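User: Could you check the structure of this?
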Amino acid sequence: MIIHRISAQGFKIIGEKLTLELPDSGRIGIQGANESGKSTLLEAIGYALYGPKLGARVPREDVITWGKERARLELEFDSGSKRFLLTRELSSKGHKASLTPIVDGARDQRNAITSISEIESVVENETGMDSESFAKLIYIGQNDLDALRDFPKARREQLVDKIMGIDLLDGGIKGGKEAQSEMRDELEKLGIRLQGVWKNKALYEEKLSKRNLLAKKVEDSLPLLQELDSNFALSQSRLAAFEWLAKKNALEDLQKSKQSEFKEVNGKAQQVDGLREQLRKGEAALAKFASPVKQLAETEAGFEEVERKKEDKEGESARLREESTVLLSQKDPAESTSVDVLDKAKTTASRFFAVFLVAGVLTMASTFVYAQTAIASVVFFALSAAYYVRFHRIDARLASMSDLRAISKQLTGLRATLDDNERIRNQLEARTGFHSSAEVREAVKFLSKELKSTTGQDTLEGLSAVNADVRFKLTPLEKDDPAGRSRELTLELEGLDKEFKLHLEVKPHGADKLSYSAEDHDSERTICERLRTKASDIRAGITFDQRLLQVLDGDLVSLKPDFEAYPLLQKKSEDLSYKIGVQERAVHELSETAKSLRNQVIPHAKFFINKILPKMTNGRYSDFEIVENLTFTVNTAGEYKSREVFSGGTQDQFLVALRLD
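Assistant: Sure, the predicted structure tokens are below.
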């Protein structure tokens, strides 16, 4: 890597912009007073390349010059055939960077990188070292040489080898050993894989043999299966013809059965219609004659009751009169007057007595006003006394005739009853238009004749019994619904007829040549099932074998790569064994070469450093020695002693001397 230009502004003690153009060849020395910024300039180069990582122990605020807001660094360098401009800017807000390729002297902004991580990766790749290697080997700050003392021998040897360029051989040795280790690991893995591949190769050959035998078995079974399929197809054809004939016969039988049932159901439906009509007429006649017959019966009963009472009362009255006549015949002629006559005379005497008595009282009262009325009052009192005497005499005669009197009361009650009975009779005649029970019976006879001519029954009771019998017969028939069943059967017969016609249209080939019998049908079904079972078993066996062939083919496909890879892997194993031997030889040669170079370079470096070290240190140090454990000793001011820690800028001078070699 060659640095062409460095520019710094606001970086540590470099406040104002400082730009240095560096030559492309030769050794470059930087001279200046203490604290003039020599180390800061070298730090700026490292900071520009690696950013804050290089100064991780220094706070960002200490990197930026006091009073400045940001620090800006630019570094233009090339690495081989590539040239770059690296720009970094740090502030309290963050860190920005860009890496721009320079092509033919112009900046290629299109391919510029602004990602911090990508810039870090490119810088490490181009410089061949990370920030730690740069800090330890390229730029060692003041007091940082102590780090070399603290390193173990292997690490110190590694750093010194880098300084002297021997690290390239070490890298080759390390890479060879790593490659050798990787090849040994690969050979070990390859050996393990070869074992599995060899097993798969043997399994492939075994399965291939089984596959060929199974394929031959399947090939031999196919003709037998074809023959069975042919015979099964012929048997199926005959069985289909038998099935067709069986269904045809079944349809014909079913049609006959349905037609017979249809006739029977139609007869029941007609019977239901006849019974319903008979019941309708019977109920209509019952409704027509029930009321007149009831009315006539009630009228006849009324007349019979009146006539019976009249007959009974008239008979009883005649009997009482006859008894009264016998009693009168037993009295004196003077007392032979009937009780009825006496009662009437007594009633008349009582009435006149009361009238004349009242008239006498009234005329007597009027004599106080009119004196001439006194005679009238005397007359009225005389008449009332005469009727009183008459009443007393009649009452005495009636008292002697108490038994006749009792008969007389009975006769009076009978006459009242007969009068009431006659009144009821007159009401019946007025309401019904009939005059006797005989007329009513004639009307009943006429109505009975009309009822019989209409219904065939003489009485309503007979008609009710007939209606009940008709209803008894009709109820179960209606429950069966012969009319509905007749409609269903009509539809079923139509459907059967269509089905039968359709069935005739699909008559299979050969059905006309067969004569149907249940035995032949069963026999053909048995033959067909036997052929089907046998063909199915063979087909299942072939299918199983074919699936097994597919499994074997799949296994062969998966095993074939190992079968084919075995010779190649065997060859690769042999090649790896050869390469490991070659690699061992190369590592040995590189180790010997590195050892030889180190034995040559260290004395030369000691000689060169001893020449320039006194001049660079103004005579403070001389007689530089590198001992076996890679520690350094120098002679200081007339005495020879080991210096493990160097002071101030002397470390920088020592490092430069070491690098110049």
